[in-house]
């Protein structure tokens, strides 16, 4: 059996150019079912570009990204939306919809032309909103709630698509520590209960270490290393990619790597 068919997502020799500049270089990934993956790396390393290729918001070349054994390029946007939900960095919304209306938009891939939502769609939306703790906001105007609340509403909308792959671009950047943990716990519950696969771009290395099954470390558009938090988050890897000296200890509760920055390296001394 072809190895592609065993996994919800496989990436083979993915390259991406913006004009004459190459952003991604020969990306190869095998994404397993029911795992939490975090894409980490410094600013400008290609994390968001990779995620956008996986979601088809940037169209990869033929035979580079496969979703459940099917070339992503061959799927329609509706077919992609039933398999993959993507939560972008920018959650601003230009129109004054209610929170409930925004969440129900996640059901649109399942509607026929001119069809509106029914009881089942509302039930699915309610369940997603309760999971993300925004049900109490259902009647609010989307532009009258906080940025953190809006982030959770957009995740609820993604859940109503009933995907089996969830892609999140910096999902906790606007959340306080309580809601960061709540969101990450929700993702792990979805993995355990629904068999979902989650791929998230995260800047916080300690958060990535605590919640991820596997990490993908990017730098300058290339995969430096991929594997467990213990194998990827080494002092040597972090110093080489982030240009900082760190102290790494085992978290006293989880045993996962916990990174303490010590100092930034002097760039000029490294160059010399």
Question: Secondary-structure map with pairings?
Answer:
Blueprint: E1 9-18, E2 21-31, E3 36-40, H1 47-55, E4 65-67, E5 70-71, H2 77-83, E6 84-87, H3 99-104, H4 119-131, H5 147-160, E7 165-169, H6 177-194, E8 197-201, H7 205-211, E9 214-219, E10 222-227, H8 229-232, H9 235-242, E11 244-250, E12 257-264, H10 267-271
Parallel strand pairs: 3-8, 3-9, 6-7, 7-8
Antiparallel strand pairs: 1-2, 1-4, 4-5, 9-10, 11-12
Helix pairs in contact: 4-5
Q: Short description, anyone?
A:
This protein is of the alpha/beta class and 272 residues long. The protein has a single domain, classed as Rossmann fold (3-Layer(aba) Sandwich), CATH 3.40.50.300.
Could you please describe the fold and organization of this structure?
- The chain has one domain (3-271): P-loop containing nucleotide triphosphate hydrolases (Rossmann fold), CATH 3.40.50.300.
- The model has no long low-confidence stretch (mean pLDDT 90).
- The protein starts with 8 loop residues before the first strand and ends with a helix.
- The radius of gyration is 19 Å and the shape is globular.
- It has 272 residues and is an alpha/beta fold.
- A hairpin with a 2-residue loop joins strand 9 and strand 10.
- Helix 4 packs across helix 5.
- It is 33% helix and 26% strand.
Spatial arrangement of strands, main beta sheet: 6-7-8-3-9-10
How many helices in DSSP terms?
A: 10
The SS-based structural class is: alpha/beta
N-to-C series of helices and strands: EEEHEEHEHHHEHEHEEHHEEH
* CATH topology descriptor: Rossmann fold
- Main sheet specs: 6 strands, mixed
CATH architecture: 3-Layer(aba) Sandwich
Mean pLDDT: 90
Radius of gyration: 19 Å
Enumerate the spans where pLDDT stays under 50 for 5 or more consecutive residues: none
Give the percentage of residues in beta strands.
Answer: 25-35%
The rough form would be described as globular
Name of the CATH superfamily:
P-loop containing nucleotide triphosphate hydrolases
Alpha carbon gap, first and last residue: 51 Å
What count of domains describes the coordinates? 1
Query: Quick one: CATH class?
Result: Alpha Beta
Secondary structure tally: strands: 12
């Amino acid at each position: 059996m072809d190895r592609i068919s065993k996994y919800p997502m496989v990436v083979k020799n993915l390259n991406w150019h913006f004009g004459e500049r190459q952003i991604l270089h020969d990306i190869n990934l095998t994404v397993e079912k029911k795992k939490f993956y975090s894409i980490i790396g410094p600013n400008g390393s290609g994390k968001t570009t990779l995620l956008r290729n996986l979601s088809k918001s940037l169209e990869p070349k033929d035979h580079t990204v496969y979703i459940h054994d099917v070339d992503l390029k061959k799927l329609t946007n509706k077919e992609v939306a039933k398999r993959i939900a993507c939560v972008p960095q920018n959650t601003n919304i230009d129109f004054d919809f209610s929170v409930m209306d925004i969440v129900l938009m996640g059901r649109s891939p399942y509607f026929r032309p001119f069809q509106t939502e029914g009881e089942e769609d509302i039930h699915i939306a309610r369940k997603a909103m309760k999971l993300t703790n925004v049900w109490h906001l259902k009647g609010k105007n989307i532009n009258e709630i906080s940025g953190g609340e809006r982030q959770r509403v957009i995740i609820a909308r993604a859940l109503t698509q009933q995907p089996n792959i969830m892609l999140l671009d910096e999902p906790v950047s606007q959340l306080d520590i309580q809601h960061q943990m709540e969101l990450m716990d929700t993702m792990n519950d979805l993995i355990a209960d629904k068999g979902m696969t989650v791929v998230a771009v995260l800047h916080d290395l300690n958060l990535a270490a605590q919640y991820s099954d596997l990490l993908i470390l990017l730098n300058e558009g290339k995969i430096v290393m991929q594997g467990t938090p213990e194998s990827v988050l080494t002092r040597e890897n972090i110093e080489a990619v982030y240009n900082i000296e760190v102290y790494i200890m085992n978290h006293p509760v989880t045993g996962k790597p916990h990174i303490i920055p010590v100092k930034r390296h002097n760039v000029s001394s490294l160059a010399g």
